[in-house]
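Ligand-bound model needed. adenosine-5'-diphosphate.
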Amino acid sequence: APMFSAVALLRPPPAETPSEASLRASPHYPEVVEKLRNVFRLKAFRKNQLAAIVSTLNGRDAIVLMPTGGGKSLCFQLPAVCRGGKTTGVTIVVSPLRALMADQVERLRSLEIDVMMLASMDSQDGNSMHELRSTANKPSLVYVTPEKLYCSDNMKAILKGLHARRQLARFVIDEAHLINSWGRDFRASGYAALSDIRKDYPGVPIVALTATATSEALQDIVTALSLNDYVLLSQSFNRPNLRYKVIPKKKDTELSIAQFIKEKYPGKTGIIYCIARIKTEEVAKKLKAHGLNARHFHAGLNDGDRKRIQQQWQNGECNIIVATVAFGMGVDKADVRFVIHFDVPESVDAYCQETGRAGRDGKVADCILYYSYYDVQRRILRINKDTEIDVVQKSRKRQAVHTVSAFCINEIDCRRMLLLNHFTEKFDPASCNGTCDNCASTDEVTEIDLTTYATQFVIMFQEAQDRCMKITGALSLHAFRGTSKQEMTRRTYDTLESFGKGSSLSTDLTKRLFDNLIAREVLSTELEEAPVPNRAPVSYVYLGPAADDFLAKMPSFVLKIRCPKNGPGAPRSKKGPQPPEEAPAFKPADDPVDPFPANDYEPFFDDIE
Ligand code: ADP
Ligand code: MG
Ligand code: ZN
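Prediction:
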């Protein structure tokens, strides 16, 4: 495939979904429908709810993949109040956040369902736990944090007791993606301990629910929870009302954002995600200066402030939240009209989860991502510097950043298709109907064969590396094109074999070539702290993990690009191999001054979510 696109992995096989007829024929069906109507006061099931409920009542393990707002809770709340299941008794629900639990508990109590919440590590829960141990009338559901489940000896003793008396109906793992050991929230979530459930409570069915799962993440859930013979219930993750767009990040992104909001969504609700705490404060301040009602939010604020800001946003006192990823879990506002990524997200998964908070009311909402390669490097630097994760986790996290980067620099393929493919779902780009920037573009697509240039470019880095020369991204472009204005550069790098070999390539094409080689991991970059304090780190380029293979095979390298119709330098399509002497047809009218402009952005790095 000439164009790098997001890697699609295959979903594991046991995807057999029970048929509608077999579900209706189930002996549990009458009771299930009765509870739906009389206890939950709902009319009909949504997709996969009945299948999930019947499966767990039959004693099977189940994984439920449903978009946020799809109705996952009912999948375990309803069987919890049924008496006819294969396993009966208390349904234990593991949930990561007190706030999420409290909401559900409140709702269930309003439906007169007997539910208990055990979420504190101190002795506050003592009475409830005593009750759980003694009364004959056990609650239908017990909500518990993972810490409570595995760090409280008292709790463990009670559960063992229930298990011995066959009074554990099932374990429910909500937000099960947190079990994925390299996920962002893993360290904090306490979900690691859940891998002992199967061993500690054999014979008790498990239900895992999540709104995000690549096949990789899914595999992690299956393995970590030792699920066997599970039913997988998934559905399309396409969000037709969301519009996707990636914009190259330039200076004064705040202004561009402010203009967008004022023009399209004045007074409407939105979220702007930034990578760093300090950035959220800066951006919120600038947006306020532009007359917008914005507040910042990050994990560095105290609990009270966080609660207050979230409340203000929830009830419309404040329209725009500028936040780190600390903002989101448990956020449920239907009329979010835009989710803007000020910086590159950490993975495609994170991107989907974050953009997924837009447009829950089904009305059109915009997802805009400001892309800069510099931000990619900042992410990589942060991963490299993280002392709390091992090399395997680092490599997976770096890969995730590269995948997101490849998604961003892809200006050809339907974004909806790329995102859905990432979650192993097929999508016909024709159905996008111009609701992503790539499908909406009327610019012509041109293929340019850069095979010879690509090879020579990579050889240049190999030579530099062999000679222990450190070369930055910007200088490498100059050296390859032989165009440095800086005398220094010329003297240092003009001894390279490939110096000036790319002189007939425009800066723009060379930069695209560079970006694609990075995305394919043929090249890699490393940010190093600046030699002078308080200056932006310097990025050096090295051969990447895929370089050896690339140099051995010298595969054909065809770049697909878009260029304006009839614009200056409108391209002629070229296919097949091209001699290096011949300049490619496409040349933008003007070379951008600096191909790595984002270096101006910010010198902050140690700042975290
Ligand atoms: P999720 O956990 O998947 O994000 P929830 O379980 O919180 O979603 O449900 C989202 C909303 O959908 C809730 O307000 C819930 O009451 C509603 N809902 C769930 N199932 C149904 C149904 N079968 N019919 C009508 N409303 C439903
Ligand atoms: Mg939920
Ligand atoms: Zn599209």
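Residues 1-15, 567-609 have pLDDT under 50 and may be disordered.
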